[in-house]
Amino acid sequence: MPSLTALTQFGPLTIYEDDGAIVRLEWDGNGGDETPLLIEAARQLRAYDAGELHDFDLPLRVAGSDFQRAVCAQMSAIPFGDTVTYGDIAKALNQSAQAVGSACGGNPIPVIIPCHRVMGAKGLTGFSGKGGVETKVALLRHEGAGGFLI
Questions:
Q1: Active-site positions, per UniProt (predicted)?
Q2: Catalytic residue positions, numbered
Q3: What is the DSSP string of 104-147?
């Protein structure tokens, strides 16, 4: 599967493409393919990192259940600099907050699908990306997101 790594302040982010869509993002530095889509995805990640981009415009394909895709769609709708709770998404999807938390943790395309913008009812919670909650805090600070507890 073609992949390309973009260097950011959050670490090297490797983007994976399959059949014309971004399907995964991981914290590592192993990607070296240069397809037009991966070049554009890396450009957008670097622009986000530089504070010049707030909304990604890339074709995405989320593997998993209908519920996983629905949670990812809800997360994608969270504006730059805003946060919502697992409970907010759960209410919108008529599901439990715990199920939403699991789906957020299974987000295959973090940063681009902003799972870091989802909080627990009492504030800051974990993060499945490299660096855990410290990376989540760094992403939120980068976006100027308020209303979370450190």
A1: 115
A2: 115
A3: HHT-SSBTTB-GGGEEBTTB-----STTTHHHHHHHHHHHT--S
